Amino acid sequence: MGKPEENKPLALDGVRVLELGSLIAGPYASALLAQFGAEVIKIEPPGDGDPLRKWRKLHDGTSLWWFSQSRNKKSVTLDLKRPEARDIIRRMAKDVDIVIENFRPGTLEKWELGWEQLSALNPSLVMVRISGYGQNGPYSQRPGFAAVAESMGGLRHVTGFPDRPPVRTGVSLGDTLASLYGTIGALLAMHHVKVNRGAGQFIDVALYEAVFAVMESLVPEYAEFGFIRERAGSSLPGISPSNSYLCADGSYVVIAGNGDAIFKRFMLAIGRADLAGDPELARNDGRVKHNDRLDAAISQWTGSRTLGEVLDGRGAADVPCGRVYTAADIAEDPHYEAREMIVTRQLPDGGPIALPGIVPKLSGTPGDTRWLGPALGQHTAEVLSAFGVSEDELKALRKAGIA
User: Fold this and answer.
1) What 3-state class would DSSP assign to 232?
2) Angle at the Cα of 29 from the Cα atoms of 26 and 31, rounded to 5 degrees
3) How confident is the model at residue 316 (pLDDT cuts 50, 70, 90)?
4) CA nearest 190: which of 70, 33, 73, 74?
5) Which are the catalytic amino acids?
6) pLDDT tens digit sequence for 94-128
7) What 8-state DSSP symbol labels residue 375?
8) What is each CA distance from 38 to 29, 34, 96, 270, in whole angstroms?
9) β-strand pairing of 58-59 with 62-63
């Protein structure tokens, strides 16, 4: 772990990425590549830039989320609604490895910047296309955000308590999952180009499909038994015991005692030898039938102890358990610190900012935060010059409000 050695290349050094789009799904995919050394050129509209710059908590008018998500990227301002800007994008597409976009399907085609046009200029190009519903199909033209994708993908229906409306997770999970699939697709396609000497291709990622892909046995259970999984609160349906339990001090502890050997150890540790030795509870399928009884036994035990006492007891019994962390808990946790999962950098005014560490951890070429999310258009002159745009041409573009 730790920072890369000085002058040692990062894993994606030499890879050039052109990012078209805004907010989360497309930009987060390119953010992952940027963290491992890719040169990511982010195109933003002049004036306001990516709307993410104003989302959530702001520091001197700029989102803290922006500083984190857009780290290591280069910001170039171009108004893609103008033909002169699109000419520059075509020029850039000839000399990049990956294009990442998350416009509604058909938008880039309208601007003559779609897959057919750009791949004709660069046959080795890899293009990641992230949208709500995919590039084709009857819903492809619908606007799609993570909240809707999480609903269509099946996640919302199983999240929450059975006597209450479906709820969402506290983050834009649909966007993030789509970003991860987009990044995986880009690396697979680039491997095909670089190693297999194959042609470039585009990766079609739909937000709802990214959610649907992680829904475990939802469809096989319905197809085989007509079973529709419902909301189950804080428990994990079909896996027992696994739930959050109230402690005497008002805290909650999450305990996953669902492995067969773990369950037996757990029951012995809390003084329930009767449950540990019950042959009907020896395997998960039997425990599921008695899940309410097991939850009651565990709740009785946690309810007479503080969170600290519960965690100490279960650690000794080697049972997976943990507190429900807040942001403050994360910031103060020694394991987060030891794993370098919170890193500190400097804001433009010199003040510190804490950022999430980089995942995954590569032993030889770990990722790094080289700079924070840039000022709007900070790299326009540098990047456009590298693609052959002269100073006079750039002045004219700026005068016309195009760059």
Assistant:
1) coil
2) 110
3) low
4) 33
5) 175
6) 999 999 999 999 999 999 999 999 999 999 999 99
7) P
8) 12, 5, 11, 52
9) antiparallel
Q: How far is CA 319 from CA 99, 198, 255, 266, 334, in A?
A: 46, 49, 8, 6, 20
Burial letters for 256-274: b for 16+ Cβ neighbours within 10 Å, e otherwise? bbbeeebbbbbbebbebee
Instruction: Give the SS3 label for residue 18.
Output: strand
State how far the Cα of 130 lies from the Cα of 70, in Å rounded to an integer.
Answer: 18
Peptide bond into 360 cis (omega under 30): yes
CA atoms lying within 13 Å on the CB side of residue 37: 15
Among residues 200, 312, 291, 309, the alpha carbon closest in space to that of 239 is found at 291
DSSP annotation string for 316-330: HTT--EEE---HHHH
Rounded to whole angstroms, what are the CA distances from 210 to 100, 101, 176? 16, 16, 9
Per-residue pLDDT reduced to its tens digit, 187-226: 999 999 999 999 999 999 999 999 999 999 999 999 999 9
For 27, counting Cβ atoms within 10 Å of its Cβ (0-12 exposed, 13-18 middle, 19+ buried), the class is buried
DSSP lists the bridge partners of residue 205 as 130
Side chain identity at residue 182, one-letter code:
G
